[in-house]
Design brief:
Layout lengths: L2 E5 L3 E8 L12 E8 L1 H11 L3 E9 L2 H12 L3 E7 L5 E7 L4 E6 L21 E4 L4 H7 L4 E4 L14 E7 L3 H10 L3 E7 L5 E5 L3 E3 L14 H16 L2 H15 L7
Parallel strand pairs: 1-4, 1-8, 2-6, 4-5, 8-9, 9-10, 10-11
Antiparallel strand pairs: 2-3, 6-7, 11-12, 12-13
Helix pairs in contact: 1-5, 5-6
Length: about 270
């Protein structure tokens, strides 16, 4: 069994289905789809568990009931949580799901990322075949680098001014201007830059180059929440297990396609 870790943020997400986003001053009815632990790192961790990996999850939550609910949920999915409790409230998120699969996200509170100084089982990363990072301070990122394969979203640059470790694969959405800009700053740190492009598939470049075609979803598309992070989880798993970017992209594309058929994330 492959040992894959995730280092990143966690939040509590309330998913609401709407016919369309409200115009300014307009009242729009919504239907609650579900409420659960979410965020890119959570989606990745659950996706990895479904792939059969032994998953360690490093993060932080608020010292509140939502934080405890998030921990319980991760454990039910077969993920091993290593979480620091912060003296704040767990970040909450409202995600509006539109017909056709698009989603819009509203955040409440600060994003809680793990710190390398947190008393967590960081030594487990040394034995990991791979790790996917969505948020970390410098010390936590250095701990992640002890894994055999390190994949990351360029969003780590949102809070880290200087990323000073080698990244095996930097995974981003070609349609996200912020991720594209951060990736440009980090490109010299990455052996591979992996760009997803929705229904067009995607491409990778760097030490090798190639492309992949999108995988057809195995059912109706319900929303796009988490599809990119599901892809990243699959790519991390594939790269750690096979070392082949083409096979990693194939696994990632399958994971992303399945995510499109699940309303409300993992």
């Amino acid at each position: 069994m492959a040992a894959i870790a995730v280092v990143g943020h966690i939040e509590w997400v309330d998913f609401l289905r709407v016919a369309h986003l409200p115009d300014r001053g307009q009242i729009t009815p919504a239907q609650r789809v579900r409420a659960n632990a979410g965020g890119g790192a959570v989606v990745a961790a659950v996706t990895l568990a479904r792939l059969g990996a032994d998953v360690d999850f490093f993060s932080a939550v608020g010292a509140d009931a939502l934080g405890e609910r998030a921990i319980d949920e991760l454990e039910r999915h077969g993920v091993h949580p290593h979480l620091s409790r912060r003296p704040v409230t767990t970040r909450q998120v409202i995600t509006l799901l539109e017909a056709g699969g698009e989603r819009s996200i509203i955040t409440i509170g600060e994003r809680l990322a793990p710190h390398g100084g947190d008393p967590l089982s960081w030594d487990r990363l040394e034995r990991a075949d791979g790790v996917y990072v969505t948020a970390a301070d410098r010390e936590a990122l250095h701990a992640a680098r002890t894994a055999t394969v390190l994949c990351a979203t360029p969003r780590i640059a949102e809070t880290l001014a200087d990323v000073d470790v080698a990244i095996d694969a930097l995974i981003l959405s070609a349609s996200d201007p912020a991720e594209v800009a951060w990736a440009a700053d980090l490109r010299d740190r990455a052996a591979l830059t992996v760009c997803t492009d929705g229904a067009a598939g995607g491409r990778w470049s760097g030490q090798s180059s190639g492309s992949w075609s999108a995988t057809a979803p195995p059912g109706p598309v319900l929303d796009s929440y988490g599809a990119g992070d599901a892809f990243a989880a699959g790519f991390t798993y594939g790269l750690a297990v096979t070392g082949d970017p083409a096979e990693a992209a194939r696994i990632g594309a399958e994971c992303g396609a399945r995510a499109l058929t699940r309303p409300g994330g993992p």
